[in-house]
Specification:
With 229 residues, this protein is an alpha+beta fold. The protein has a domain of 135 residues. Strands 3, 4, 5, 6 and 12 form a five-stranded antiparallel sheet that branches. A three-stranded antiparallel sheet has the order 7-8-11. Strands 1-2 form a two-stranded antiparallel sheet. Strand 7 and strand 8 form a beta hairpin. Helix 3 packs across helix 4. The N and C termini lie far apart (94 Å).
Length: 229
């Protein structure tokens, strides 16, 4: 930018926008490191929902309340029954019950998953891993309702002038010949510049449909019965 006489340059641009995508038309969130973390967060939320639904077996038992004071619903415990087997489960409820003689007992209920206990597979080619889940993502082409990259070079399909200088001169001459005010005749027929561009499709933001596929979740085997002799 210049100022004064003679003109002197008093400022200049130091740098351009240093964003990951300097051009908004190329913007893509899920292609960045932060977007990858968002995808992994969504996968782990899905894993949590599947794990909760997989706890299909429930077991209830009672113990003296003093032995359950350190327990909470954030704990997972293992119960072993001689000659039967063992069960590992997540505590889902703790209920205190006071009997008639004043004795307190705790009713514990746990939920367990009866999976196959196999180890999670290692990520294959073009796969990534979050926790014990392997997943693959596809990033197709950005869907553009309008060819945004071509807007800068797009010209109008109509560009013409109505009532130019020659036409207004004719209006003024005709009005003067008829005894009318030529200036008023020019005012009633002003010069118009008509510019028309191709209409743009009115749609929402640019979209990009990303597909994420995960391997089947391996569930632990938390119910183990002993074989009958």
């Amino acid at each position: 930018m210049k100022w004064g006489i003679p003109p002197q340059k008093y400022w200049s641009r130091a740098f351009t926008k240093l964003a990951p995508q300097a051009d908004r038309r190329h913007a893509t969130y899920f292609g960045t490191d932060r977007g990858t973390r968002s995808i992994r967060y969504a996968i782990n939320r899905l894993r949590r929902s599947v794990t909760l639904r997989a706890r299909c077996a429930q077991l209830s038992f009672s113990i003296p309340y003093d032995q359950a004071r350190a327990m909470s619903c954030a704990d997972s415990i293992r119960i072993e029954v001689p000659r039967v087997g063992e069960v590992v489960g997540k505590i889902v409820s703790i209920e205190r019950q006071i009997q008639r003689k004043g004795r307190s007992i705790a009713n514990i209920r746990i939920a367990s998953t009866n999976g196959d206990g196999t180890a999670a597979p290692a990520p294959g080619e073009e796969q990534e891993q979050t926790g014990d889940l392997a997943y693959g993502a596809t990033f197709p082409r950005l869907y553009e309702p309008v060819n945004a990259l071509a807007l800068d070079g797009m010209g109008p399909f109509a560009n013409f002038v109505e009532n130019d200088a020659a036409a207004q001169e004719a209006f003024a001459r005709d009005a003067s010949s008829a005894g009318l005010d030529p200036i008023a005749a020019i005012g009633k027929n002003p010069t118009r510049l008509t510019i028309a561009f191709p209409s743009l499709r009115e749609e929402d933001l640019l979209t990009r449909r990303i597909t994420v596929r995960t391997e089947a979740l391996r569930l632990p085997k938390q119910i183990k019965f002993l074989e009958e002799a």
